[in-house]
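Hi, here's the filled form for the chain we discussed.

Project: internal
Contact: R.S.
Residues: 156
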Amino acid sequence: MAKKIDINKIADDAKKAADGWLLDADVATRVVRVLNSKIEEIAAQLLGFEKRWDRWEVDRCNGRDKTTAAGDYVRSAVDQGVKKWFDDLAGNLPGLPKKARASLISYYLERLERELRQRLERKAEDDAARMVNEIIEEAAGRISRQPAGGTEATGG
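And the returned structure, exactly as it came back:
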């Protein structure tokens, strides 16, 4: 035989448990207490650090160093340093020797001539194909105008 369940007793027990838990501390207070006790760790982790061997290091696990405030800061600082280095270097590059400059100009002119020849060849091929089509059309027109069985007289 099934035991009779008193719904009122279950409701009273649930209310007492909830009231007791809330009297200990409401959820927000508990959250604040936990956060306050771990504030250094939380802030460091949000910035992208993790504690290893009692030292804080940039968290590189799964590329997190590229998606954190610390990673952003380091990347920005490196980018600025590299940019400054290139800017400083650009102003101090040696000039190109005259012999090298003459060689490059000569190479450019040879390459330009080769490219022009290739493009002219392609253009001539296109024009020749067009002209062949025109000649074929003209010949087809003459053939269609001829009387059946005869040939058109050609001047000579």
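Let me know if anything looks off before we file it.
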